[in-house]
Structures are given as structure tokens and as C-alpha cells.
């Protein structure tokens, strides 16, 4: 997810006039970070060091989870399925950008699809980095900021962002909660055979 978002953000920088030198520099820095991450995941001695450091602050169960995460991430980067995953995530980001694009077009606002894809990607990443549930407030504020830069009237921008977030995110959270409640209601809360 983050890899594709980075590619989209770099394409957005190029679109908005950054020089190819700046973008190449950013790509080299990101590749260095990725290579360091892969070395960190591959090295068993560094894995042990990371696990010992984590044990200082978290219970042993968290360390087991970190080990699983390290192994899964390493396998993801070494398998040929990585390219397929990137393409699926790229399609996902394009679909999210298309949703915002459709909402803005419904209000008769002139924006480009690539701008919408960039705005959605950056606002989602900033929302994730805020560590707030669903990027609440941060994702919306970022989208509003981008729309104001594009000279979209603020009243239309607020309504557009609200509709976009409602249909691209919140409605699916509601449906997921309803489905989860339905399936959880089918599970027995306690088993009468185990009561002595």
C-alpha cells in the first residue's frame, strides 16, 4: 500500500512541476530506505536486536507478533507476487481517486482525475500517519486544503469531501459492523456443556 502511494505521490510531484532531479533524488532516498529495511528484515542478528529492544517496552506477545510481521514482510518483498500486489493496490488508489473525481464532477467542478488520485493518496497517508482512527479529521482537512488550492469554493469542497468520505469509507465501515454483528450473534456466548 505504502509503495504504491509513494509512486503516486512522486507522480503528483512531477505533475505539479517538480524537476526530474528532485524526483530522482527522492526516489534514490526511498530506495535506500527500502534496501535498509530489507537488510534489517533479512539479518537474523538484527532481528534479535529489534526483538530485545521491543521486549524492554512491550510484553513477549508483542515480540512474537513483530517476528511474524518481519517474516511476512520479508516474504512479500522476495516473492514474485509483489508486482501483482502493487498493481492491485494501484487499481485501488485509482478507484478511490475516481470516487472523489465523480463527486466533484457531479457538482460541476473542473478537476483532473490525476489530481484526485494524488489528493486521495496524500490525504490517506497523512491520515494513517496521524494514528487517529480512520485518519479522522486529518484526511478530511488535507482534502479540503488541496481543494482550496485548486480554487474550489469552500462550501462545495466541504460537501464534496463529506460525500466522498461517506461513500468511499464510512458506508463500508457501517456495512462491516452490521455483518460482523450478524455473524457474532450466531456464535454461542458460552457452551452449556462446559458448565459444571
Word description of this protein:
The chain is mainly alpha-helical. 81% of the residues lie in helices and 0% in strands. The protein has helices spanning 2-15, 20-42, 44-57, 60-78, 81-106, 113-129, 138-149, 154-186. Helix 1 (2-15) packs across helix 6, helix 3 packs antiparallel against helix 4 and helix 6 (113-129) packs antiparallel against helix 7 (138-149). The longest helix has 33 residues, at 154-186. The protein is globular and about 55 Å long. The termini are far apart.
Summarize the structure.
It is built from 8 helices and no strands. With 196 residues, the chain is an all-alpha fold.
Q: What is the rounded Rg?
A: 21 Å
Q: Approximately how much helix is present in the residues?
A: over 70%
**Class per helix and strand makeup:** mainly alpha
Separation, N- and C-terminal Cα atoms: 50 Å
Please write the string of helix (H) and strand (E) elements: HHHHHHHH
Low-confidence stretches: none
Based on DSSP secondary structure assignment, what is the total number of beta strands? 0
**Strand residue content:** under 5%
Report the sheet with the most strands, covering strand number, pairing sense and barrel closure: none
The best one-word shape is globular
DSSP summary: helix tally: 8
Mean pLDDT: 76
Amino acid at each position: 500500500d505504502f509503495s504504491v502511494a509513494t509512486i503516486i505521490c512522486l507522480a503528483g510531484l512531477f505533475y505539479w512541476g517538480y524537476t526530474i532531479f528532485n524526483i530522482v533524488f527522492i526516489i534514490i532516498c526511498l530506495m535506500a530506505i527500502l534496501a535498509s529495511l530489507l537488510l534489517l528484515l533479512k539479518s537474523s542478528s538484527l532481528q534479535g536486536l529489534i526483538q530485545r529492544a521491543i521486549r524492554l517496552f512491550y510484553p513477549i506477545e508483542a515480540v512474537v507478533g513483530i517476528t511474524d510481521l518481519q517474516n511476512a514482510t520479508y516474504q512479500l518483498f522476495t516473492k514474485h507476487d509483489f508486482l501483482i500486489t502493487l498493481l492491485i493496490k494501484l487499481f485501488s488508489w485509482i478507484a478511490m481517486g475516481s470516487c472523489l473525481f465523480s463527486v466533484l464532477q457531479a457538482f460541476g467542478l473542473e478537476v483532473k482525475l490525476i489530481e484526485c488520485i494524488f489528493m486521495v493518496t496524500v490525504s490517506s497517508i497523512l491520515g494513517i500517519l496521524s494514528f487517529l482512527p480512520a485518519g479522522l479529521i486529518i484526511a478530511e482537512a488535507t482534502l479540503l486544503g488541496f481543494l482550496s488550492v485548486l480554487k474550489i469554493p469552500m462550501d462545495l469542497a466541504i460537501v464534496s469531501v463529506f460525500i466522498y468520505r461517506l461513500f468511499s469509507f464510512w458506508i463500508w465501515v457501517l456495512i462491516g459492523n452490521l455483518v460482523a454483528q450478524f455473524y457474532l450473534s450466531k456464535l454461542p456466548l458460552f457452551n452449556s456443556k462446559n458448565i459444571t
